[in-house]
């Protein structure tokens, strides 16, 4: 799962016993060499789905990490592109890789933007928010978008109960619950807390008009359903 340039087991343990912010500060220099970084094929599939809906003006990557989302924002957006994250370490890496973008350190649950963007994207971040925190996140993105602006992010379909992946992810979530029950500060990272139906409900309650498109380039499951969908939430 990890390349030789990635973090050691000791470094991963230290990260897991830290807060989310501190953990990602520590992981930042080697983040690009971990499986936590959004794969290029997911970024490319997202770009292919968004391209017919553009071009867009200004773009925002929510929970940008080391800036992988800039790979798709730059060709899709004609205006300024911005990344926002609360990890100083991740933003430092992003600045080195993409010096032409704008970077903002902020808690995305209280985004400091008002009607400044036409497209917002996010990759792999929803698991860092408890269900009760999602409305604040979505409300902040809603405020950050201009009327008619689009918030887009991929979301994977649930693996079959009979699959090894299902039990692996369930085991990870249970381990995190135990860790957070006995250790402080908490490290919020869960895979099973953001199913599509719950995310759609929260987006609609915020005021978004929500549709989805299958990312067929990422494959289909045995029952024919897509492995991943792109959520398209538009500020009406």
From TrEMBL:
Domain Methyltransferase: 60-149
GO biological process, one term: methylation
GO molecular function, one term: methyltransferase activity
Stated name of the protein: Methyltransferase domain-containing protein
InterPro entries linked: Methyltransf_25, SAM-dependent_MTases_sf
PANTHER family in the cross-refs: TRANS-ACONITATE 2-METHYLTRANSFERASE, TRANS-ACONITATE 2-METHYLTRANSFERASE-RELATED
Keyword annotations: Methyltransferase, Transferase
Superkingdom of the source species: Bacteria
Organism: Nonomuraea jiangxiensis
